[in-house]
Each structure stands twice: as structure tokens, then as C-alpha cells.
Amino acid sequence: GAVVSQHPSWVICKSGTSVKIECRSLDFQATTMFWYRQFPKQSLMLMATSNEGSKATYEQGVEKDKFLINHASLTLSTLTVTSAHPEDSSFYICSAPDGTETEAFFGQGTRLTVV
Amino acid sequence: GIQVEQSPPDLILQEGANSTLRCNFSDSVNNLQWFHQNPWGQLINLFYIPSGTKQNGRLSATTVATERYSLLYISSSQTTDSGVYFCAVEAYSGAGSYQLTFGKGTKLSVIP
Lengths: 115, 112
Fold this sequence. Notes:
heterodimer; A: 115 residues; mainly beta; seven-stranded mixed sheet; four-stranded antiparallel sheet; 11 strands; 0% helix; 53% strand; B: 112 residues; six-stranded mixed sheet
């Protein structure tokens, strides 16, 4: 299957700083990528849809100024958590659909801890 | 939006036992996927199965799209099967795109 790589796997940052998470499709091109958030013992919730060359589409309740998404190429999308606070601590995971069908493949996830 | 319900929420099995996990969804879907989330959080693709039956080793899955449910069968369970199993369906979001909606998952614990 297709491979999606996410970096970093975990990060600890201080309150008020910004953190950038990268999501790459390694062996296919992805015009669309998705960003999810998962709290402990809960399911994945879609945060936003990242579109190559255009603005991201955010789900209701997700602050677009806090969670900046950039999809600058067909293989890379980035999520920047700006001015992070402890309540932003969570597991963030990206996915991209394989272009042949619409099967979604997921990155390894990033565990963010804001102290 | 579409609702996805998984059952049971928790399942404890003795090693070697068989199990069936269920996923019900409330509307027509484009596709359906089953994932296994390992203890490190990685989502492993198990099946891409909008309809019909597929098998992969000890795992098999069946989706009956007309009745809006899917089943995941695990046979001869092993301790490495432990983790959370998610069902996710792709449906039209109403905002011009299709998106995956996840169920709440089934937490499987296989004990030796």
C-alpha cells in the first residue's frame, strides 16, 4: 500500500510557542490530505482538509488561525499549531487517499505535549 | 452527518478464540475501511471494503452496503491482535467533498 510519513513522532513544547508537523506522501502524489486529532481513548476527529495550491477547509469549531495548514506541493502538507497551550496537547495524525481509489493511508501520528 | 456505530466497545478474548466486530452506518457510503490502531497510535489498514467479502490471513471482512453494516472477523486471535479496531466510512460531506467518518472503535484485549 501507499506510504504516508509524518514527522515528528512526538514533540514537547512550551506554552506560547509554535510547532510544525509535516505529512509527506512518499510514493504517490496527493492533491488532498486530511488532518485529524485524537484525544486519549477517543476516536479520530477530522480537523481540516488540506488542498494543494489552495486554502485548507476547516471543520466547524476548528480555529483556522491557530491551526495553520499549508499544502505547498503534491507530496507535502504541514500543520502548524500556533501559540500552543496545554489544551492543544493531543495526538495529531494525517492521511492521504491513494489516487487510484479513495483508500486512505495514515501517517504515524504526532503526539504533542504543551507544558 | 453520517453516524457510525461500532460494537462491542470492549472485548476481552483468550488467545486462540474467534471474534466478530460490527460496524453500522446510517446512510449510503462511497467506501468503508477497517483499521487497527496499535499501542503507538499508528493506524494500520486492514481492509478497504465498500461491499462484498475479503480475506487476509486470519482476518476477513464483509460489508453489506444495502443493509448498512460491515463485520470484521478475527480468527485464532493472538496477543498481537490487541489494540483498537476502527471502522471508517467515506460519505459526501455536504460541503462539496467526501470525508472519512470514524466510529468510536472496539478495544480488543487478547490474553494468553
